[in-house]
Amino acid sequence: MVSSTPTDKTETTTQVEEITTKNPPKWCSVSLSDVISRGKRLDASVFDVEAKQAWTRILKGKYGAVLLGNGGIIKTAYYPGRFKRIYCSRGNGEPFFLPSQMSEIYPKAEKYISPITKCNLMELRLQPNTLLLTRSGTIGTVSYVSKTIQGQVYSDDVIRVTFEKDYDLGYIYTFLKSKTGNKILTTNGYGAVITHLEPEHLSTIPIPNAPIKLRQKINNLIVSSFDLRDESNKLIDDATALLTTELQLPDIDTFDVKLYKKDAPLETFNIKLSNMTGRLDASYHVPIVNAITSHLRKYAEEVTTIGDPRVSKGVILPGRFKRVYVEQGYGRVFIGGKQLYELDPSNKKYLSNVHHGNRIAEQLELHENMTLITCSGTIGKVALVGKHWENWTANQHIIRIIPANHDIAGYLNIFLASDYGFPLITRHTYGSVVDEIDDHHVRAIPVPLLKNHEVQKQINDLALEANQKRYEAYLLEQEALQIMDTEVIYAK
Q1: DSSP string, 351-416
Q2: Per residue in 133-148, pLDDT tens?
């Protein structure tokens, strides 16, 4: 367990974080005709070496290539018309999802569209059997409309693609998720990065013209993978519903908060000096926190804290450090807080074992059934470490909770990830520019232990079963990607 000792704090505040990558230089020759075609540009960024290799690899592959927009592959490719968004509070509008949430296993709405917004909601709703692509900002993110997000309202910054043949959905998804396919998606034939993706760009993307049987095999794996993700989400919902019922928790938006002064023009409340606990920031004392805590004490057998040894073995907050990245295969997978909700985090980096071996073992390493909480910038994102993340590493902006045992790991995660756990986490936020919480704050977060021990066990088991299904979903997608590489892209 790593605690915030004076030594740790000194390291955190005085050492500047530097990120270095030790890679050999990459080079290629470029023909004069390519230079002229690219507007007589001589800067290397216009001619991405890996991208040019990816294009060549597909065009000269075993099965040949067919353009994605031709040959009866794509049925439709479009994005809804742009509109001025008018957001409103939760409960007063339609849940609205952003492109950054496309790759999440179980996205939750962060914004809500007001009914007075002038847009066609039906056009924005996701339809089944559709491939999704981000078209601006970070382009190249690929997803698939599963049952979890079917019918949800997604941003107009997401391109919707449907196919003539059902099996091409999973096949094209896998190709565009592969390293080679994603390079082609985000660059043109000269290797130049595309900064804005339009549906018409898809017509120029070459894809391997693999046999139908092989396409069906890959598609079936992807369909099964997303089915497992849907099943895991259903188990999470069931576990949360059990928790809510057992503790008789009302909807978070209708929680009875009595401490606000009703005659004040703004939301105003009083705090006794004896209850200040050394915090003068109003966000720490918001009445909803006291209301939730009081409710939990009334209906739970006991309200303890994460620091209780019955709940956790330790809470780890890594110190800052100078990172040394290496190529894939030469170090540990390294992820950040933005990637916590993804099944297979995108943009993974690899941390050097040679330079960070001790720190990885003591602070950074992830293990199955740890609960992770983001503690810097965006506070309160909660994730349960799956089996496929075993021995991966995460940055110092994520706090690790080591569960006391297998019987509390899933239950703890369900509570912290609920609407009621979130305010108990974020109340500890401090910082004038970048929001922060630390390991001491996490240890102090209240956790209810249920009167009905059998229900608590059931909640725990549902959460762990959901985590197992996500692991199985990951394996199926990895199998599809491996087949895409070995039997299609690099096939001899």
Answers
A1: EEHHHHHHHIIIIIB--TT-EEEE-BSS---EEEPPGGGTT-EE-TTEEEEEESSHHHHHHHHHHH
A2: 998 878 889 999 999 9
